[in-house]
Amino acid sequence: MPNIIPITDFLAPELDIYARFSEAQLLNREHPEDGIFLAESPRVIERALDAGYEPISVLSEEIQTGDPILTRMGDIPIFSAPYEVLKNLTGFYLTRGMLCAMRRKPLATISDVCKNARRVAVLEDVQNPTNVGAIFRSAAALGMDAVLLTSNCSNPLYRRAIRVSMGTVFQIPWTFVYDNWLDKLKTLGFQTVATALCEDSRSVSDPVFQSIPKLAVLLGTEGDGLMANTISECDYTVKIPMAHGVDSLNVAAASAVVFWELGK
Predict the structure, then answer these.
(1) 159 phi and psi, to 5 degrees?
(2) What is the pLDDT of residue 96?
(3) CB under 8 Å to 205, separation ≥6 — which residues?
(4) 196: left (phi > 0), else alpha (psi -120 to 50), else beta?
(5) Judging by beta carbons within 10 Å of its beta carbon (0-12, 13-18, 19+), is residue 38 exposed, middle or buried?
(6) pLDDT of residue 1
(7) pLDDT at residue number 62
(8) Packing angle, helices 129-141 and 251-262, rounded to 10
């Protein structure tokens, strides 16, 4: 039986996690083992549960309290409030009636994430959570087996990234990478391909890539792209052929094209 607790006041302390905590407070960098995140909408929450994430509490609009997904929550608190209360919560109108606070998992190692992987996406300093979420959605849909992120990337479990990804951040293995990550990838048997507008860049549709058994595809930050030293250390560089004088695409849009071609 769901443990439903009615809430009538937007300022109730039970709503602090949902209404007043910043992403930094939720992440809890000083004690990452206590970090949490917010999943929005029943579909996304279900994907997180399927991936083994532990729910802490739920905030639901009153008309949603009979949702079958709540039977998977055990006896955790399910805070229920009328829409007139919840509309004061920033962005609640986008949540389709339900939010769930969940515990983060310890980060996996690069070896664990890349185990049995054939195609891996690597994000270098992609700081916009909307782009990170969109890239994850493309990676999951278009043949990538895992995603690696450098330390300056936006966290995939930021609320907006989860929302944009439609919960695919829970469906594809990922982790953060730190020093010497390119060397580590090569040690694991991956050849590396940088997306960059260089004179010697191959077309992303070049058939040579289809014959490479393990390939890591690198995407850089919005605007500046990959760092020069990263590009120079890669085995290949690729670019997307453009028309009408356009030189590049947004990194999220570019990722979909690159994953489609290189994930085959």
Answers:
(1) -55, -45
(2) 58
(3) 241, 261
(4) beta
(5) buried
(6) 64
(7) 72
(8) 20
